Every structure is written in structure tokens, then in C-alpha cells.
Amino acid sequence: MQISAPWPALSRNLVAILRGVRPDEVCAIGEALAEAGFEAIEVPLNSPEPFHSIERLVNFLPAHILTGAGTVVTPQDVERVADVGGRLMVSPNVNVQVLEAAARKNMVTMPGVFSATEAFTALGAGASSLKFFPASVLGVKGIAALRSVLPGGTVIGAVGGISETSFADYAAIGVKTFGMGTSLYRPGDSAQQVSKNARRIISIYDEVIAK
């Protein structure tokens, strides 16, 4: 079994989810995110021309920014993301073939899980981290219960229905990794609006997680 690249040492474990972003706007938005302090960005593959957007971000942003794709559901998707330089693979589900394909490309992987069975299957397939999704449905208590049986050191991300107002509740159970979607970016948002959202989120993250 090949193991995915380890979860990187980011200044903040925040993943920007740019669902719906267009290639012509992605660099300005990516720059706004990087300047605010985000170091991980995913472009979901159900966005317009997602591989073009990912390639633009990879070529435009500093090398330390972890850039890649979300909603990755096939090994062929993995290959295309890798071909344009993406290093992050986020999926809504656990597909061992997808995880194996990403591991062969030395990608950082974050498959979506909702149960202990899915979580252990993902870890057994070498996942870098786990995305509890949708976190708002599973809830803090559900994630806390599942986290208690997972191996120590497992990187757990809460994604789906998460905003900066959620940070304190999840931090109280030891979850410090979050995927930020509509609270950060909605299709049509300007780079200026994204910058404002990102700085607000970063400020609250730093206040809560630094405690």
C-alpha cells in the first residue's frame, strides 16, 4: 500500500473551498486568500473549467500554497489534477482506488467520511487526513465520539456547514482543521469581498485556536 503525502505543517489548518470559481477570476481570488493567510486552496471539480483554474493557481501562487481539487471521485480525475500541478486531493467519499491513485502522485489526500467504518477504511488506504462531511449534520458530539476511537495524531477536518462561528465548539473537542466554503466564497464574489471574508475568518481562527 502506498501512503499519501503527510498533511503539511500549515500556519493555519484552513482549506479554502472555491466552488464555482472561474479561471478568469481565480488568480485574483487566490492572491487575496494567500495574502490573508490561507495556505490551502481547493477548486471543486464541479466548477467551470476546474483544471484550468487549478493550473492557473499553481503557476501564480507561491510554491508553499497547497493547491488542488475537491469533489474528486475517479482515478482519472486524480491524474488530471496531478497533470496540472495540483498537490491536494479532496473527495466527498472514500474510494480506495482514488486514494491509491493520489498516493502514487504523492498528493495530500482528504477523503470525506461520516462513520467509523469509512474513517478506518480511508486511513487503511493511506489517507493524509479525514474530512468529516457534512460536519453540520454529524455535529460536534458525533465527531467527538468518532474521534475518540481514531488513532492519535489523525488530522480531522470539519467540512460542510462550517463558518467561523463554529470554530470554538469544534476546537473544544480537539478539531482544528476546517474547510471553508460559502462563508468564504460564493460564485460571483469579488476578490475584495473574499479578502474581507478571509481576514475575518483568519482573525477568529487565530483568536480561538491560539487559546
What is the gist of this entry?
The protein is 42% helix and 16% strand. The protein is an alpha/beta fold and 211 residues long.
Description:
By secondary structure, the protein is an alpha/beta fold. The chain has one domain: Aldolase class I (TIM Barrel), CATH 3.20.20.70. Helix content is 42%, strand content 16%. It is built from 8 helices and 9 strands. It has helices at residues 23-36, 50-60, 75-83, 96-104, 116-124, 135-147, 167-171, 191-209; strands spanning 14-17, 40-44, 66-70, 88-90, 108-110, 112-113, 130-132, 156-159, 177-180. The protein has a 9-stranded parallel beta sheet. α4 (96-104) links the parallel β4 and β5. It starts with 13 loop residues before the first strand and ends with a helix. The model has no long low-confidence stretch (mean pLDDT 96).
Write the layout of secondary structure elements.
Blueprint: E1 14-17, H1 23-36, E2 40-44, H2 50-60, E3 66-70, H3 75-83, E4 88-90, H4 96-104, E5 108-110, E6 112-113, H5 116-124, E7 130-132, H6 135-147, E8 156-159, H7 167-171, E9 177-180, H8 191-209
Parallel strand pairs: 1-2, 1-9, 2-3, 3-4, 4-5, 6-7, 7-8, 8-9
